[in-house]
Amino acid sequence: MLDSKLCKSITVVEVAGSGAATQVVSAAQLQLPKNKNKRKVSKDCKGPEKNQRIMLEALGAYAGRALELHEKSAHKKKDAWLRDSMWNHHRALIRANKKLRKLE
């Protein structure tokens, strides 16, 4: 199925039995998607906005990794999540620090 936003029509080419004659049934117009998600930030605020975005990405990476490791530990024996919590926290911080290296 075609995405109506990308293509308005399709070109159909028919080849005769001899292979010499071709006939165009309709013309194609390809519509490329426009970038509507451009960030609108003044020049003075580009640096702080970028830093804020990177810090939020790192925070998301930390939270996601910590949750992933916690759920893995919770499926172990009894209170393994409690025993593994310091290690899980450490591994999540490593993941977040990798994201924060972009700030340097």
Write structural notes for this entry.
This protein is mainly alpha-helical. It has two domains: 32 residues, no CATH class; 61 residues. It has three helices and four strands, in the order ββββααα. The strands form two sheets. A two-stranded antiparallel sheet has the order 1-4. Strand 2 and strand 3 form a beta hairpin. Helix 1 runs antiparallel to helix 3. The longest helix has 29 residues.
Query: What is the tally of beta strands?
Result: 4
Q: Report helical residue fraction.
A: 40-55%
Low-confidence stretches: none
Strands of the widest sheet, in order across it, are 1-4
Number of helices: 3
What is the string of SSEs from the N terminus onward? Answer: EEEEHHH
Instruction: Describe the sheet with the most strands.
Output: 2 strands, antiparallel
Give a quick summary of the entry.
The protein is mainly alpha-helical and 104 residues long.
How do the helices and strands line up, and which of them pair or pack?
Layout: E1 7-9, E2 13-15, E3 22-24, E4 29-30, H1 46-74, H2 80-83, H3 85-100
Antiparallel strand pairs: 1-4, 2-3
Please describe the structure with a list of short key phrases separated by commas or semicolons:
3 helices; 47% helix; 104 residues; single chain; mainly alpha; two-stranded antiparallel sheet; flat
